[in-house]
Amino acid sequence: MGSSLDGDAIRLTDVVKRYGDIVAVDHLNLDVPEGICLGLLGPNGAGKSTTMRMLTAQAVPDSGEISVLGFSLPRQAKQARARMGVVPQLDNLDEELTVRQNLEVFTHLYRVPKARRAEAVARALAIAQLTDRAGTKTADLSGGMRRRLLIARGLVHSPRLVLLDEPTVGLDPQVRQDLWSLISGLRDDGVTTLMSTHYIEEAERLADECALMSRGRVVARGAPEKLIKEHAGAEVHEHYGPPERLAEIEAVAHAHGFPTRRTGPSVSLLRAEQLPESLRDRLGPPSISRAPTLEDVFVLLTGETVE
């Protein structure tokens, strides 16, 4: 039987995955300690979903090593899958079955002992707040309820590790908030969670740590507040104006070592609290002074935008 290595539920070492000429995952190194929620944050095409597919052995790396709960993938994928829960991005529920029946099928697939199956289903229904919908056909559920059922299905065997691939994509804000409460409860129960997302607020709200991913690699990692302090400072100045003025502000800031990001008709100058008085006078007063965000960090490090 496998056991976690040095307290890590997941470890990827120098992992590469190519699709033809496209390098989807590029020498990725990533570890997920037991008991935390790690947010894998990045835009579409960053390599998040490919990483998730390799962790479930749906894709095999071209090189590198993957360990999940102490089991080497893909060789010991069966043992690892039996101990993890997976919530896919795409809805693959059986629409002809009821909510309860969908869960019962997975108690068999996960080999939950017969004497514990009813209890396991009841627990999963309660966690997902679907107890009163147990007899409803899946085809009749709303989008938010279907997503909750997917999460319940991934938890029906009380896994040590849960993989959430874009868990709230395509849902309206209120439903998203409800699911955030559900996912937060997993962390409170000590379940190790790896969650891929391209929603900044989702990562900030749920993750103990965030790994910012771009072009198949992790470009920064840490607690959200740590990443913000390290890369964006404590204050951001936003300057609005014509393109030539914005270009001038960028040139002056960069010449003095201050990072900026362009957003439509404005330039945001990061670490503005460190501006010397002479440079403040040269740049002029900002249109807006605000606190930095995780989005500032992501755009600064990757040059890409996220939601």
Mean pLDDT: 92
Which structural class best describes the helix and strand composition? alpha/beta
Q: Which sheet architecture does the biggest sheet show?
A: 6 strands, mixed
Strand content: 25-35%
Helix content: 25-40%
SSE ordering: EEEHEEHEHHHEHEHEEHEHEEHEH
For the record, the CATH architecture of the largest domain stands as 3-Layer(aba) Sandwich
Number of strands: 14
CATH superfamily of the largest domain: P-loop containing nucleotide triphosphate hydrolases
Task: Tell me the Rg in angstroms.
Answer: 22 Å
Within the CATH hierarchy, at the fold level, what is the topology of the largest domain? Rossmann fold
Structure characterization notes:
The protein is elongated. The chain has 2 domains: 8-228, P-loop containing nucleotide triphosphate hydrolases (Rossmann fold, 3-Layer(aba) Sandwich); 234-291, Alpha-Beta Plaits (2-Layer Sandwich), CATH 3.30.70. The protein contains 11 helices and 14 strands. The two termini are 41 Å apart. The strands form 3 sheets. The chain has a 6-stranded mixed beta sheet with strand order 6-7-8-3-9-10, sandwiched between helices. Strands 2-1-4-5 form a 4-stranded antiparallel beta sheet. The chain is of the alpha/beta class and 307 residues long. Strand 9 (209-214) and strand 10 (217-222) form a beta hairpin. The mean pLDDT is 92. Belongs to the ABC transporter superfamily. Pfam families: ABC_tran (PF00005). GO terms for molecular function: ATP binding; ATP hydrolysis activity. One of its GO terms (biological process) is response to antibiotic. It is a peripheral membrane protein.
